[in-house]
Amino acid sequence: MGQGQVSLVSDEKGYTGRNSSGEWVGLDGESVEEEVAKALAKRLLGETSLSNKERRRVKEYDEKRGATRDSARAGGGALHDKDDPLGLANFSVSTAGKAQGGGGGGGGGGEDGGGLTNFENSKDIVVESFSINANKKELFTNASLRIMHGRRYGLVGPNGQGKSTLLKHMAARAGLSIPSRIDMLYVEQEVAADDMAAVQAVLKADKKRAALVEEERFILAALDAADEALLKGGKGAAGHLEDEARSIMEDRLNAVYNEMASMKAESSEARARSILAGLGFTAVMQEQPTKQFSGGWRMRISLARALFMQPDLLLLDEPTNHLDLNAVIWLEDYLSRWKSTLLVVSHDQDFLSGVVTDIVHLEQRKLAYYKGDYDDFKEMHEQKMAKQLKDWETQQKALKSMKDGGKSKKQAEEVARSRAKREGAKTKGGGKGGDDDGWAGAAAASSGPELILRPRDYTVSFEFQNPPSLAPPILAVSNAHFRYGEKYPWLFRDLNFGVDQSSRIAIVGPNGVGKSTLLNLLIGELDPTEGEVTRNRFLRVGKYSQHFVDVLPMERTPVETIMSKYPDVHYQDARALLGRFGLEGHAHTIPSKDLSGGQKARVVFATLALQAPHIMVLDEPTNNLDIESIDALGEAIVAYEGGVILVSHDARLIRSCQCRLWVCDKQTVTPFDGDIDDYRQSLITQIHSEEEKLEEILQKLAAQEEARRLEELRIRIKKQKLAREAAAALARA
């Protein structure tokens, strides 16, 4: 590669060389030393004749890039702190085993032209026997992380056990050896609030596309300058290119066009808009500056950027929390066709069963692997727990027998450990699923023999007090119209319906049509612009809001909150109630501002239970709850003898509560003819129909782009011919 003969060179790794300003740049467009840029360009061009020094510089560059790029990309937006972007300063990580590339779809392959090892070249992640501690609390102990390329994993387990912590350590490559080739993206933060339009915030994320567009512009400008030089007098004119240099540039331009075609660069904007639309953004919203959106909506933009970028490994932490039901159904359908690797933490069982190929269960500070969706996992996990309980009972009998025979506790446990180690070796071949999955022997060998632990089922029990009966209708909406002011459009017109204590209603519909506004009209926080909402004078309405600041006094402890609102409840009774709703004992007496989202949710549900409302209005109640708590909530709602009005993105909760669907859309509310599964299928049919229309548009765009490039080529050939004729005429003169 001669200096001055190559501008930018790109492939799937990124681009390098010189930009239009003459600066030497690395794979992400950042400034680098000239010798580093040239070595990187050699590797991208497939040259194998790198010197030892060049190989060493490339390896150093890859290692530095892997650490800084993943840290910068984690969150999809602004960082928490420059030195600790994911807040991992209080965690410590140790590994007893050595990470390896694994043998799945992305591993192996030997060294490439840049001297990458098998490990570095792998797209599988295998880290044996790692431990993570936070402030002396063990979150993971001798756990094994195994993520195979092309699989879609759901990471599940009770709240507060370390699922998000694991994702953050992976994203930051903090203490876990992850191949540098794996391009990871962790969606945690919303995009920055600035003047950039939402669709541009998504498009801007694709640096490779931007680099190819820049390279095309640079090469075309250089070729145009060379043509002008021919017209002005040939070799001595500014911009002149020798035939060899010109040939190299033209070849590179063709390669750029081929790369842009292979990545469908001409359809990037249409694809970005399609993703945003699926996540609930209207055409108008897509053009609005990000600073006009709330944090939840900017989080959707971050998710859209991640889906648009299509990284090797996408890490998602509760992605459905910021979405409505329609957007969740779209995302589930989209991710079910995800071609790369996915690791998602989610409390939504239907979403998990629709998306994942494997479940990773965090249990007793270790990771257990199960093939199949969430329903398959539940069945296999129950079988595993039953077997573990039986094995534990057998072990306890053996320990007692040895102690009765004169052995000390320590001696008896050593014998039991030896037996456990032999049993672990026997199961090295693995089974259908569960903790083993073909890995049990390796895990036993790496983590050492351990005593069998008694399985502990994590159970939560919710219960709402039943209210006294009221004569229906206890809540009636008559000829109601609503808008937020004369300058605003009508959200609702001519609403007429009633709600009683037997009602089970789930309000669904597209984003922005007024679902939350309708709830506020029903409970009296808003008054209709026209018409009326009448309520029985004895009616008690209990509301659960996903915005805890609206209902919880943040300076008070959970016990103080309950006792101040219900003076007849004694201290111990308040604590017992909080315990039944799954709030840990230590959290009963600390200010609510210091509680996690899941802990605050349990406090709100406990106070709601004491209210004994005739109607409960629940606005996204599953946010911040774990799967076991959502199941408990569903069972409590079924047993509750009052009315329920529910807005939720969790299809399984809607189904378990046997709710009738009311579709909120087009300024009215209409009962849906079917159940939640019928509604879901109708949306998926609509999604696929719109995707077919989009595919037709993309094909037209591709044809138009090809025609544009052919026309540019025709013009360039014509200009070059005229320039050569002019140069020949000058030579004859």
Description:
- With about 725 residues, this protein is an alpha/beta fold.
- The chain is built from 22 helices and 21 strands.
- Helix 13 (about 375-405) runs antiparallel to helix 14.
- The relative contact order is 0.08.
What is the strand and helix layout of this fold?
Elements: E1 8-11, E2 14-18, E3 24-25, H1 34-44, H2 52-73, E4 91-95, H3 118-121, E5 125-134, E6 137-147, E7 152-156, H4 163-172, E8 184-187, H5 198-203, H6 207-232, H7 243-262, H8 268-278, H9 283-286, H10 295-309, E9 313-317, H11 325-335, E10 341-345, H12 349-355, E11 358-363, E12 366-371, H13 374-404, H14 409-426, H15 440-447, E13 475-482, E14 492-499, E15 504-508, H16 515-523, E16 530-535, E17 541-544, H17 558-565, H18 571-580, H19 597-611, E18 615-619, H20 627-639, E19 643-647, H21 651-656, E20 660-665, E21 668-671, H22 676-732
Parallel strand pairs: 7-10, 7-11, 8-9, 9-10, 15-19, 15-20, 17-18, 18-19
Antiparallel strand pairs: 1-2, 2-3, 4-5, 5-6, 11-12, 13-14, 13-16, 20-21
